[in-house]
Each structure stands twice: as structure tokens, then as C-alpha cells.
Design a protein that fits this description.
Belongs to the ABC transporter superfamily. InterPro entries: AAA+_ATPase, ABC_transporter-like_ATP-bd, ABC_transporter-like_CS, BCAA_Transport_ATP-bd_LivF, P-loop_NTPase. This is ABC transporter ATP-binding protein. Keywords: Amino-acid transport, ATP-binding, Nucleotide-binding, Transport. The protein is α/β, with parallel strands linked by helices and 243 residues long. It has a single domain (3-96, 161-242), classed as P-loop containing nucleotide triphosphate hydrolases (Rossmann fold), CATH 3.40.50. Helices cover 36% and strands 26% of the residues. The strands form two sheets. It has a six-stranded mixed sheet, sandwiched between helices. α3 runs parallel beside α6 (146-158) and α6 (146-158) packs parallel to α7 (176-191). The radius of gyration is 17 Å and the shape is globular. The structure holds adenosine-5'-triphosphate. Adenosine-5'-triphosphate binds next to β2 and α1.
């Protein structure tokens, strides 16, 4: 495939983003190509969430451009970017605890229905990918394990048929056994050819899943590259970029 002919799913150009009254992210530029998993990495407070929030419209941009499949989405609200297929799963998952697994998933389908009316059943596609959600379809979301809740939050985004899936630290706060489980279902999604922007602090998970890596520190990009760029000890090389 000729790389020059492939239109990126996401193009971010020279974005500065604001939290409160401060510019906490400066001059961020990157692309996500179709079927690629781009890892956005960095230590606590480096600016990862602000970057993805600026892309999806949750955080204010001071300047810069964001394009989704070539369309300028820089000034759109999160609601509009979601309807164009940029679906973000936030760190706190934002599930409706008192609602069933199935009802939580059906809420995700609303984004799809507005964008592409008439598309057939997404629920079954999610249940095929995550049979455990099918087993628990009538259970309340707040009765699920942490890993299952993450699976549900991602399933709800998948049901909206994302052009780009943005995952903000899906393994955050999970016990090691659940981190492994989440990594396994992310690998399944990767195999499905989804385009994913993955915010991740866990170096092992990132190295396992990402095609390319971008590391930020103090709101600026300090590294962009592929696994081979890390040399013989990628865990150490990547860890050194965090500090
Ligand atoms: N509402 C706010 N007002 C001012 N500064 C903020 C606000 N929210 C976040 N910040 C600051 O912005 C910077 C970037 O935070 P951000 O949450 O994007 O980092 P992060 O890399 O996602 O961190 P974490 O991994 O802890 O979620 C931090 O220095 C943080 O203190």
C-alpha cells in the first residue's frame, strides 16, 4: 500500500489546549492511520487526557486543527464529534450503574442511529466480540467486575461503529489480572482492524498493543516512533521517557 494515498483517520496539527486558565498542552501534531493503534503515553499529569479531550471537543483549544477523515472538526462539540464517529471512552467509564448491560449498550447505539440510520444490529456484533457481556446482558452495570465494566464501556462505544476509538487509560485502576484481561480484548479489537488512539500508562500493555508511540511530557511531545526505535530494552527506553 502506498502510504501517500492513505487518508489518515485523524490528523492533529499544532494544537494548544487549555485547562482552567492555563495552556497545558503545546504544539501537538500527529496522525492516526486506518487500522492503526497509536499509543499516547506519558506520566501522570503529562497532558494525555487534555490532548484527547481537545480532539473530541471536551477541552478548549487555543489554536490548531483537528481533522477526522479529512473533515475539520476543530470547532465541534463532543456531541457532534461523536456523531461523526469519534467515540471516546473516558477514564471513569461513565456507565449507568443502575441500568442493565444491554441498556448501557443500547445507549451507545443512539450515536450510530443518528449517523447511519438503518444499520443492522450492533448489539450482536458486540456480543460476538465480548461473549461475557452477552452472558451478563440483564445484569446491572454496577454489579460487574472492573474489567467487565471496561469491556462494557468499550462495547458501548463499539456499538456506535467508531471511525476512531479513543480509549483513555482503559487499564487504569485495575488489578493485574484484569489488566491482562483488558489487554486481551483490546488485542481482539486491534485484530478487527479498528483505528484506535490509546492513552496508556502501562508500558507492557502499550508495547503489546500499539503500532506506533507518542510520548508527552509537560504538555509537549518528547518522542514519536515505533517499537524498533526503543532498541534492545524497550521497557527501559520507554520508562526513561516518562520522567
Ligand atoms: N481544570 C484544570 N485546571 C488547571 N489545570 C488542570 C486542570 N485539569 C488538569 N490540569 C493540569 O493539566 C495538566 C495535564 O493534565 P492531564 O489530566 O491532561 O494529564 P494526564 O497525562 O492525562 O494525567 P493522568 O495520567 O494523571 O490522567 C496537569 O498538569 C494538570 O494538573
Amino acid at each position: 500500500m502506498n502510504a501517500k494515498t492513505v487518508e489518515p483517520v485523524l490528523q492533529v496539527e499544532s494544537v494548544n489546549a487549555i485547562r482552567g486558565n492555563s495552556t497545558v498542552v503545546r504544539d501537538i501534531s500527529f496522525t492516526v492511520n486506518p487500522g492503526e493503534v497509536l499509543g499516547l503515553l506519558g506520566a501522570n499529569g503529562a497532558g494525555k487526557t487534555t490532548i484527547v479531550d481537545a480532539i473530541s471537543g471536551f477541552a478548549r483549544k487555543e489554536c490548531g486543527t483537528v481533522r477526522l477523515l479529512g473533515q475539520d472538526i476543530s470547532r465541534l462539540s463532543p456531541f457532534r464529534t461523536a456523531h461523526l464517529g469519534l467515540l471516546q471512552v473516558s477514564q471513569d467509564r461513565e456507565l449507568f450503574g443502575a441500568l442493565s448491560v444491554e441498556d448501557n449498550l443500547m445507549l451507545g447505539e443512539q450515536a450510530l442511529t443518528k449517523r447511519r440510520p438503518g444499520r443492522p444490529d450492533g448489539l450482536e456484533r458486540v456480543f460476538t466480540l465480548f461473549p461475557r457481556l452477552k452472558d451478563r446482558r440483564n445484569q446491572r452495570a454496577n454489579s460487574l467486575s472492573g474489567g467487565e465494566q471496561q469491556m462494557l464501556a468499550i462495547g458501548r462505544a463499539l456499538i456506535g461503529d467508531p471511525v476512531l476509538l479513543v480509549l483513555d487509560e482503559p487499564t487504569s485502576g485495575l488489578a493485574p489480572v484484569l489488566v491482562k484481561e483488558v489487554a486481551e480484548f483490546l488485542a481482539l479489537m486491534r485484530g478487527d482492524g479498528l483505528s484506535i488512539l490509546l492513552v496508556e500508562q502501562n508500558i507492557d500493555v502499550a508495547l503489546e498493543l500499539c503500532d506506533r508511540f507518542m510520548v508527552v511530557r509537560n504538555g509537549e511531545t518528547v518522542f514519536e516512533g515505533v517499537r524498533d526505535d526503543f532498541g534492545k530494552d524497550p521497557v527501559a527506553a520507554l520508562g526513561a521517557l516518562y520522567v
